[in-house]
């Protein structure tokens, strides 16, 4: 995977999400001028088509065009050519019927006035300096729009002509609808971009969610399973890394399992090797029993036989404890009716109690309903076996074994009581058995308390904190 | 008795003493030190005694093969494994099991129980107190009067279940679930009612039952 150098980097970049998103952004930016020009083209085409005949430009051009036109006209006229001036003004009036015009001769007398109907500042008959200034003051930037031009080629005057025209004629009649149209186009473009981005991220999101789902999913061994790698981009690489991790976990689990089975095998072999001689000893003891032994001899034989049994259970407990505490005996906790389990275990032990002369007083009925705890069945049976075995081995002299339910509701406890005189000998064989009881109950979140007295021992098992 | 037993055990010392013990009791014993030829030797045998820890093929595999070849052959497993380990795996096909070191008497007792349970000749009735039970013919005769006792389907099932596990105590849940084939519900009195009727038919004195014992606080037991 490593060491492919720049080629792979290039390939990686080509496949990367970053480059793909950049492509979307770039195409949006590049498309923008094209689309804008396209839109104006289509607008012109469409607009011309829709609004044919209805010019959107001002009727007579804009104000400055009008102004220069007026000055030009004035330049072609001379003072004193009264006839020509008036003829020209009349012609102009015909061309611009909305305008009002007049001219003033060198003597300051107003000559031809061609009014348009609505007058602005009243035109004086005679022009004094103050009249001229008043008129100019009223006209500057006013409505109507006023142009004053001196006649003559060099505009030397003193004759001048005046044009007044309503300002509204110069306003553009461009319809406002076109701006909205244009805005809509840009908006649509923007939405297109957002949609494409959204789709892009939605796909990324979906793939990430798939990965998350794959991570939470547990396969057979409680490990995540590898998933199908979809693409070569960053998420694809993430999937690849995830697969590598899953494989790695699987391998280490496999190794662990091998070690576990090896250890179990070792313990099984050990157990076998230790028990075989005990079995042989039992056989020889059995043959001895048929010989005519003295009472002492018979007693010694019985003791020996008992010790062989103790030895066997000691081996069993020791090996079990090794397995359990090294975590090689995983507990499977399930909600189980404990009373039923206790009854079944007691059923298996009952014949031995009968043989040992132990009266079993079992009362698990008086409290209503099953008692359900989260336990490992085999583990709990093992706990009961060890406790019952202790009673048989160390408290058989009491001749009594009581199994009862105490308390009420969920806090109910199971009590196993005997009337053994000596109580449990600490550290003598019972130790490892009780260590197993303690270990298993702790793992099943149960508490146990043992009360020893002169008159016997009672063990109580109950849920933790109950 | 003269039943023929197949005995597979790799440890010669144990094998010698068990063979001696079994022959003394009148059994015919075929001893194999490994499981390779188990299936071939098993034909004509009445019971297989199988050690779990064998060289080559392990006891579980041998047992499973035997059970496949001879489903009617009872198998008694002898295991030296720790009790928390793999016991259930062995029990799936085995009819009973014993852990080493076992007491010779216990081995003999278990063999007898198994042979009785699997006895093929229906001619010989099994005696349970004053009753004679012809298992093959599903017939129960009162030994005192010689009269046949007729049981209803469920009564017969219950009795048969206890008889098949003779000597073992079965809880009411176990009996109910084996006979009715559905989970026992706490407080259900059906089983108690059936046992009362069953006792009225089977027992000499239904008030002091001997055939179906009540083991207080645990369940019921039939001792053959």
TrEMBL record, chain B:
GO terms for biological process: regulation of DNA-templated transcription. Residues 123-224 bind DNA. Residues 4-115 form the Response regulatory domain. It comes from the Bacteria. GO terms for cellular component: cytosol; protein-DNA complex. Residues 123-224 form the OmpR/PhoB-type domain. InterPro entries: CheY-like_superfamily, OmpR/PhoB-type_DNA-bd, Sig_transdc_resp-reg_receiver, WalR-like, WH-like_DNA-bd_sf. Gene3D superfamilies: 3.40.50.2300, 6.10.250.690, Winged helix-like DNA-binding domain superfamily/Winged helix DNA-binding domain. The modification 4-aspartylphosphate is found at residue 51. Keywords: DNA-binding, Phosphoprotein, Transcription, Transcription regulation, Two-component regulatory system. GO terms for molecular function: phosphorelay response regulator activity; transcription cis-regulatory region binding. PANTHER family: REGULATOR OF RPOS (PTHR48111), TWO-COMPONENT RESPONSE REGULATOR ORR33 (PTHR48111:SF1). This is Response regulator transcription factor.
């Amino acid at each position: 995977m490593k060491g492919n150098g720049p080629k792979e980097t290039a390939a990686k970049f080509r496949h990367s999400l970053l480059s793909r998103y950049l492509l979307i952004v770039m195409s949006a930016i590049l498309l923008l001028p094209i689309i804008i020009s396209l839109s104006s083209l289509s607008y012109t085409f469409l607009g011309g088509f829709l609004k044919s005949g209805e010019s959107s430009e001002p009727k007579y051009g804009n104000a400055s065009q009008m102004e220069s036109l007026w000055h030009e006209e004035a330049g072609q006229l001379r003072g004193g050519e009264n006839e020509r001036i008036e003829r020209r003004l009349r012609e102009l009036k015909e061309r611009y019927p909305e305008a009002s015009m007049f001219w003033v001769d060198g003597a300051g007398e107003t000559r031809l006035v061609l009014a348009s109907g609505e007058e602005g500042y009243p035109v004086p008959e005679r022009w004094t300096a103050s009249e001229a200034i008043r008129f100019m003051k009223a006209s500057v930037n006013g409505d109507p729009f006023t142009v004053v031009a001196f006649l003559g080629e060099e505009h030397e005057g003193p004759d001048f002509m005046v044009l007044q025209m309503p300002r509204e004629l110069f306003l553009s009649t461009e319809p406002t609808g076109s701006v909205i149209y244009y805005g809509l186009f840009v908006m649509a473009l923007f939405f297109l971009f957002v949609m494409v981005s959204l789709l892009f991220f939605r796909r990324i999101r979906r793939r990430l969610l798939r990965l998350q789902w794959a991570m939470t999913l547990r396969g057979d061994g409680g490990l995540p399973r590898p998933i199908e790698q979809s693409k070569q981009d960053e998420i694809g690489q993430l999937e690849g890394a995830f697969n590598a991790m899953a494989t790695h976990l699987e391998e280490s689990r496999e190794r662990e399992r091998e070690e576990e089975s090896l250890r179990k095998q070792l313990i099984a072999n050990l157990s076998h090797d230790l028990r075989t001689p005990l079995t042989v000893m039992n056989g020889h003891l059995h043959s001895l029993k048929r010989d005519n032994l003295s009472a002492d001899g018979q007693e010694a034989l019985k003791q020996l036989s008992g010790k062989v049994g103790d030895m066997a259970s000691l081996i069993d407990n020791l090996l079990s404890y090794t397995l359990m505490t090294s975590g090689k005996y995983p507990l499977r906790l399930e909600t189980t009716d404990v009373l039923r389990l206790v009854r079944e275990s007691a059923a298996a032990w009952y014949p031995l109690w009968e043989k040992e002369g132990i009266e079993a007083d079992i009362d698990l009925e008086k409290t209503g309903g099953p008692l359900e705890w989260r336990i490992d069945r085999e583990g709990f049976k093992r706990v009961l076996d060890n406790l019952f075995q202790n009673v048989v081995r160390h408290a058989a002299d009491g001749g009594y074994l009581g199994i009862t339910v105490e308390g009420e509701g969920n806090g109910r406890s199971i009590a196993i009581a005997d009337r053994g005189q000596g109580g449990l000998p600490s550290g003598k064989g019972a130790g490892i058995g009780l260590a197993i009881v303690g270990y298993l109950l702790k793992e099943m979140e149960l508490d146990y308390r043992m009360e020893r007295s002169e008159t016997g021992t009672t063990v109580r098992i109950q849920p933790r904190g109950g | 008795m003269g039943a023929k037993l197949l005995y597979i055990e790799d440890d010669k010392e144990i094998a010698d003493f068990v063979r001696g013990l079994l022959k003394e009791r009148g059994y015919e014993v075929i001893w194999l030190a490994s499981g390779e030829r188990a299936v071939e030797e098993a034909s004509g045998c009445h019971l297989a005694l199988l050690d779990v820890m064998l060289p080559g093929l392990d006891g579980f595999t041998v047992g499973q093969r035997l059970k496949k070849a001879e489903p009617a052959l009872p198998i008694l497993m002898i295991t030296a494994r720790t009790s928390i380990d793999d016991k259930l795996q062995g029990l799936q096909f085995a009819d009973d099991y014993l852990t080493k070191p076992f007491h010779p008497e216990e081995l003999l007792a278990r063999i007898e129980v198994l042979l009785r349970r699997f006895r093929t000749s229906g001619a010989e009735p099994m005696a349970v107190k004053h009753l004679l039970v012809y298992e093959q013919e599903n017939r129960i005769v009162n030994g005192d009067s010689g009269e046949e006792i007729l049981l209803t389907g469920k009564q017969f099932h219950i009795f048969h279940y206890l008889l098949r596990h003779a000597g073992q105590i079965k809880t009411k849940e176990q009996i109910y679930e084996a006979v009715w084939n559905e989970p026992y519900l706490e407080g259900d009195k059906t089983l108690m009612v059936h046992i009362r009727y069953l006792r009225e038919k089977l027992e000499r004195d239904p008030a002091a039952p001997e055939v179906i014992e009540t083991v207080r606080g645990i369940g019921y037991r039939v001792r053959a």
